[in-house]
Amino acid sequence: MDILKDSKLLLVSLFIILLAEAIGQIKISLVMVFPMLYSMLMGGIISFPKFKILNEKNMAHATSIMSVALVILIAKLSTSVGASWEKIIQAGGALVLQEVGHFIGTIMLGLPLAIMLGMGREAVGATYSVGREPNIAIIEAKYGLSSPEGRGVMAMYICGTLYGAVWMGILASVIAGLDILSPLALAMGAGVGSGSMLAAAVAPLLELYPDQAADIQAFSSSANLMSSVLGLYIYIFFSLPFASYLYNKLKRKRATASADTE
Fold first, then answer.
1. Which residue, among 128, 215, 132, 220, has the nearest Cα to 172 in the 3D structure?
2. Which of 225, 206, 204, 245 is nearest to 36 (CA)?
3. pLDDT tens readout for residues 108-138
4. What is the Cα–Cα distance from 104 to 221, expressed in whole angstroms?
5. Would you tell me how many other CB atoms lie within 10 Å of the CB of residue 197?
6. Residue 59 falls within a domain, yes or no?
7. Interstrand relation of 26-28 and 31-33 (parallel, antiparallel or unpaired)
8. Distances from the Cα of 177 to the Cα of 56, 101, 168, angstroms
9. Which of 188, 214, 186 is nearest to 84 (CA)?
10. Does 66 reside within a domain?
């Protein structure tokens, strides 16, 4: 009940919503910017401690409200699964294979780049997954959060929380605007196991493809559920061991190359 009595937070939230909706959609070159995107940016600026608009208690209440709102959003998206069940079954193989993209992008691209930038074992924790809550739990159980791997996954979690939804919204908008992929493929790609990232990525797809809104919601929520359930086992039994193996191999190769140069 304390949350409902937090008038400052409710008024600030209402102001952001009204301002974002008043601005509406803005197209900048290939990027279509939607109200949700700059409402997140405005919220981030307003909550900056230096401005002293919101205190820690207000932000704690905002976190609680966000958690409830995301549950409602996921429930709403999930209700569209039944209507598109046959299409989802037909795309079953694609839904499973899209999980592969989660480790190809983070490990195969991110890990070598992290090593090039000078990261140590932190690179394993940072790149073996998209760095959400279940991924933190996996690292905590295997290495502990005080380990280099723990610091890596926590750094990625913080970055994902601050910038993940903004990045997903922009990326989905740009790729959808290029019209090079099916909107259903983009919907599946939006389901990375994060409710906020899912919402940010699906918003531009629903605006650009209103005639396929039901299917987009169904495929994105199915992919998100699969990422949360099946993805957990992929992270435990494949992604984390493979990231550790690749890290050791790349570090040895780099050390050998440095020794040869000297």
1. 220
2. 204
3. 889 999 999 989 999 999 999 888 877 888 8
4. 21
5. 25
6. no
7. antiparallel
8. 39, 21, 14
9. 214
10. no
Q: What is the DSSP letter of 181?
A: S
Q: Which residues sit opposite 26 in a β-bridge?
A: 33
Looking at residue 111, its pLDDT comes to: 92
pLDDT, tens only, 26-80 = 776 656 677 777 787 888 788 888 888 888 888 888 877 766 776 676 676 666 5
Residue 126 falls inside a structural domain: yes
Whose CA is closest to 130, among 207, 204, 195, 216?
Answer: 195
Largest CA distance in the chain: 67
DSSP class per residue in 78-120: HTTTGGGHHHHHHTHHHHHHHHHHHHIIIIIIIHHHHHHTT--
Residue with tokens 């190809």: 104
Cβ-in-10-Å burial (0-12, 13-18, 19+) of 148 comes to middle
Q: Is residue 32 part of a domain?
A: no
Q: Which residue has the tokens 């995107």?
A: 37
Q: Which of 37, 39, 88 is nearest to 217 (CA)?
A: 88
Total domain count for the chain? 1
- Global pTM value: 0.67
